[in-house]
Amino acid sequence: MKYLDEFQNPDLARRLLDDIRSTVTRPWALMEVCGGQTHTIIRHGIDQLLPEQVELIHGPGCPVCVTPLEVIDKALEIAARPDVIFCSFGDMLRVPGSDRDLFQVRSRGGDVRVVYSPLDALKIAQQNPHREVVFFGIGFETTAPPNAMTVYQARKLGIPNFSLLVSHVRVPPAIEAIMTAPGCRVQAFLAAGHVCSVMGMGEYPELAARHRVPIVVTGFEPLDILEGIRRTVRQLERGEHTVDNAYPRAVRGEGNPAARAMLADVFEVTDRSWRGIGTIPASGWRLSERYRDYDAEYRFSVDGITTREPAACRSGEVLQGFIKPHECEAFGTLCTPRTPLGATMVSSEGACAAYYLYRRLGTTPTPQEASPVV
Amino acid sequence: MCLAVPGKVLDIEERDGTRMATVDFGGVVKEVCLEYVPDLQVGEYAIVHVGFALQRLDEESARKTLALFEELGLLQEEFGDPWEAAAAPPEWEERGPGAATGAGAGAGAAPAAAVGDGVQEAGR
Lengths: 374, 124
Ligand code: SF4
Fold this sequence. Notes:
The complex is a heterodimer. Chain A is an alpha/beta fold.
């Protein structure tokens, strides 16, 4: 129980845990979709505090981890060009491409800059009219609206030297892919709260009904996650499968209509490949026809890339919940945050990094882990 | 990166036809675009992600979350120097299991003395 004292409100945490304990009668496997939630769970030992019938499976909700290698390699090639200022969020710097990362591109003379907001990249474009400024637009539904707004602004203000390298992904098709994958053990989802802050919950009832799977919108603070689990387990025990909002302070049913309208204007849905997982139909966004001029893939010819994924890396299985990070042979030996083989070891939201950082290595495997289904 | 941080609106102005605010995140002040929560007022709180307000938040939840983030070092992660972090993840070096020693990881490997309980068996 050493972790419980670290909760912001240990008494409330204890009450939620007691409630879960008294509700559960059978084994259940829940997937938390969001990498931020994975981090909270491991950091606070929530998976170890839960009754052993409740298993948490870590999901693919880390944007840094799922950005396909091909797109990373394109980014690296564009960033290395002398006429380009390449702007990115800080957590992409160490994501390994086939033979280098952005950090190395910069140390070899590339002009790579880290920005806090995509609007900062637009400002850099305004200040450097004779250079091409490219922003690396990755992320889920939470990050896509800021990037959409930035492209909209670039067009409105007539800034011609700005473009976006886009690799946005969407959660609902990923849930669909997980539920239909052979060997899927997931029985319920803790949906990512901030994704729903933007998108609302409208896409979920159909998914919940068709797969008979409860979907509970959950925040990412320790108590939020316990409350999400509590509500999920209740539904599972009662044989229900509805969409429930356990994060109402940040999520309204309709999400953020202004952000959704901008998404619909600037982007269009497309198939996307997810690193380690493969292509999921309709699981991403690209710039719509009207904004093609701002698409870095069209502006720079970066075709003919051959990608090389390290054979030892099993991040695809980690991302789909088939194995836990420490079951990968390379974990902690060949692969560490300093010498990462896969993106899941790089990102602060990656499951491998969370396990490494919080020393989740020698835990006794649960019966399910000891005899993996796939 | 996917995390959104609550902040308090300090002031609001129109820039290039866009509603922008200065927002305080527990001491770190940043420029934030309000186009997605256009009726947000000075003194109110919102969840902010990569420089955009995404939803209004009540003050009590915002303060609690900010205090928690501060304690967990997440504010440092979000607003600290990313190049420094990428050059040598300091916390990871200290807290990592050090199992990379001898695996060709080079100077960054933590000393074997830092190896935690049960690390040798990890994942084998
Ligand atoms: S530990 Fe490293 S090599 Fe193994 S799955 Fe994770 S990122 Fe890939």
